[in-house]
Amino acid sequence: MNNFIKSCLFAFLSMLTLTVVAQNRTISIQSTFKDISGKPIPDGDQEVTFRLYKEDGSPMWDETTMVDVQSGVFSHLLGSANPFNDLGIFSNKLFLGIKPLGQPELVPRTELTYAPYAMAVNSIAGLDKSASFENIGGHPALKVTSTLTPKDIRSSANNYGDNDTGINFPDDGEMDLICNGIPVMKTFHNTQNFGVHFPQHVGFGPDANNSSLLIGIGDNNTGISHPAEDDLRIVTNGADRITIKPDGKVGIGTSSPNISLAIGDHDTGIKHLADGALAFQTNGTERLRIFDNGRIKIGGDSGNNGAVAPLEVDIEGNTTNSSYRSVVNNTADWKQMWHGTPGCNAFGFIETKCGASGGNFGNVAIGVKGDVVVNGSVVSATGISWSDKRIKNILGISNAKNDLDLIKKIEITDYEHIDKVFNDRRVIKKVIAQQVESLLPNVVSSTRRVIPSVYENATRVDFEKGILTISTNKKHEFIAGDMVELKCFEGRNYREIEVIEVKDEYTFTVKAETDPKEVFVYGKYVDDFRAVDYDAIAMLNVSATQELIRKVEALEAANALLNKSNDSLLKENKMLKDATSSIEARLQKLESLSVKSEASNSVSAVVK
């Protein structure tokens, strides 16, 4: 660049826009650098010293800064590097000198032809009066050198060309707006206040004369009314729409609010309770409260105990045993409670039907038309489902034998969640949707949801021009067009943000508004996230159990027949045993007689 500057003979000020702005006091210039052949110098940054000279050549101000030269053209705000602290220099004719780094100042110097410095006016409307723009207190200001009468500054229109309508400067720092000789608006010395002198009405618009301050747009009864001390009303079509009372209470559609913001009547609306806390009430009864920690409580005795969860529903209703109810404890723990008939158990903060009464749902705390989707658990004492046959087209009784065969094939699996932050951390014993789907596709449904397919911190995050490049240690398995979820430790989280480009199996890009520095890559959204109808599996189990009962009953009947046959056999066996015993006894007698006979014969033989 220095070699080029040596060959640079001149700089053209092709356009010079000169403005001194009260806030930043800068002068905007645009200039062109060309070499000796008239070609623009190469693009790039160039250090340049700008200097303002008086007509006699004495320097008044200078600054050195870098300018960006593109196609030989650069723009710069004089005063951006070295502010014009003394605006008095602009009372002189000034010439601008430009000096590139390491080179002599370019010639000739350029005169600031449109001067942003002091302007003197020798006469106003032919009068022997004067005004000038000068530096007063470090700010450009209009200085009037003599006091003007109402006729000195006035409208020239025929209807208002009189001598008692205009602007008057009665004292130092004061100004009056005069109408027909009456001061209707006044500024006050050493204050930022101004006063309106009309005793009743100030109107903006046609025939605006019915309110203290009336903004009339085509009518005369729309604006701001001040009917009583410290009482302010906003009026349209002659009717009060918004009322602000002396204590700050606001009414919309009511002129007598008794809460912070009443809507429609005096005791329905929003009540400000304390710093960060609001209550919504209707007919004087509080219905909903938002606490300073962001938690919400609906119904019941909202009081000051706070909500034990981000959303707590407390519907007390009556004290019948069949009412749904949740209660507020003095601790943040979920505890067991009793309500109604002793011995009726309730779990957590939800109590369902209990005791002897029944036949209805009691006082319903939450009514929903449609699905309720919960990421965590639903805890209740019981569950009730609609089951009226009049809403059903009954196709028949399920085949219990087939149901038993199916239930034997369903695999009960032990598993843990990958995401243990937003899900249960325990080992869970349940089914797997894909396995159940292979057996019972009608009990498995699909929806759109994010899965923790990556679930790890990014190893590298680069942000440039609205593009976030993210690298992971694990293969992300994304493709361009996938919607992913990113959790950022700084700045906003990104849910369902599109993958713009996949650079490799570990790196991808997305659009981003800011640089989050650190990113946790959760995973991608899928349209086939499975859900299982556990009620259907429970009913399948009922049907299979019924089939098992039939089998058991058949076995029991067969066993009864076997037992009856066994009893007959036992009886027959006993009879045989008895007969055998009798025969054995007779044989023993015969054997005894036989022995005796043989012994007698032996004795007879010896005697002979």
Feature tags:
ten-stranded mixed beta sheet, Immunoglobulin-like, eight-stranded antiparallel beta sheet, 608 residues, alpha+beta, 33% strand, Thrombin, subunit H
Summed up, what is this model?
16% of the residues lie in helices and 33% in strands. It is built from four helices and 36 strands.
Describe the structure.
The protein has 608 residues and is of the alpha+beta class. Among the domains are: 2-111, Immunoglobulin-like, CATH 2.60.40; 269-313, no CATH class; 449-532, Thrombin, subunit H (Beta Barrel), CATH 2.40.10. 16% of the residues lie in helices and 33% in strands. The chain has four helices and 36 strands. The strands form eight sheets. The chain has a ten-stranded mixed β-sheet with strand order 17-18-19-20-21-22-23-24-25-26, with no helix packed on it. Strands 29, 30, 31, 32, 33, 34, 35 and 36 form an eight-stranded antiparallel β-sheet that branches. The chain has a four-stranded antiparallel β-sheet with strand order 4-3-6-7, with no helix packed on it. Strand 21 and strand 22 form a beta hairpin. Helix 2 (400-409) crosses helix 4 (534-607). The longest helix has 74 residues, at 534-607. It starts with a helix and ends with a helix. Mean pLDDT is 75; it is low at 1-23, 115-130, 147-161 and 317-359.
